Every structure is written in C-alpha cells, then in structure tokens.
C-alpha cells in the first residue's frame, strides 16, 4: 500500500468541498483504489498530464471535479 501525502492546497480545497456538502465516500473510494494500486474504473477517465505537469496524473471524480495526483513507488501525493 502506498503512503498518502497531501499538500496544503489539497487540504484547503477538501475543506471547502466538505463545507459545500460534497460526499467524501467517492473520494475515499478513488484514493483507496489508488493507494492499493488497483486500476480505476473507466468512468473516472484517469490519464497522465502533459507539459509542466507531465509527472502527474488526473482523474475525474465528477465532470466538474478533478483529482490531480503524483504516484511513485512508495508515495501517493495529492
């Protein structure tokens, strides 16, 4: 299982989502799959980013809600 680390920006954005009524079950499901290195369902449209963020990946929790992350051998960083 990968170690999960979060940035201050992620923590702040998550706090805003919770305040606005976002159900965290979806986030926990996706993060759990990523941390245990299980593939995500196609509906999440997981893909690598390009350009300056080429080391990062992105998946779509909802059509207007994206999760950007960096995955290496031991760590999952949001």
Automatic annotation (TrEMBL):
Lineage: Bacteria, Pseudomonadati, Campylobacterota, Epsilonproteobacteria, Campylobacterales
Pfam family membership, one: YafQ_toxin
Similarity remark: Belongs to the RelE toxin family. YafQ subfamily.
A molecular-function term among this protein's GO annotations: RNA endonuclease activity
PANTHER family named in the record: MRNA INTERFERASE TOXIN YAFQ (PTHR40588)
GO biological process: mRNA catabolic process; translational termination
Protein name from the UniProt record: mRNA interferase YafQ
Superkingdom: Bacteria
UniProt keyword list: Hydrolase, Toxin-antitoxin system
Gene: yafQ_1
EC identifiers of the protein: 3.1.-.-
């Amino acid at each position: 299982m990968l170690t999960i680390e979060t940035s201050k920006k992620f923590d702040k954005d998550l706090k805003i989502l919770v305040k606005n009524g976002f159900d965290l079950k979806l986030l926990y499901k996706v993060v759990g799959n990523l941390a245990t290195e299980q593939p995500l369902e196609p509906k999440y449209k997981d893909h690598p980013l390009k350009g300056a963020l080429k080391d990062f990946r992105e998946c779509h929790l909802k059509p207007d809600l994206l999760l950007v992350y960096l995955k290496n051998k031991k760590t999952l960083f949001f």
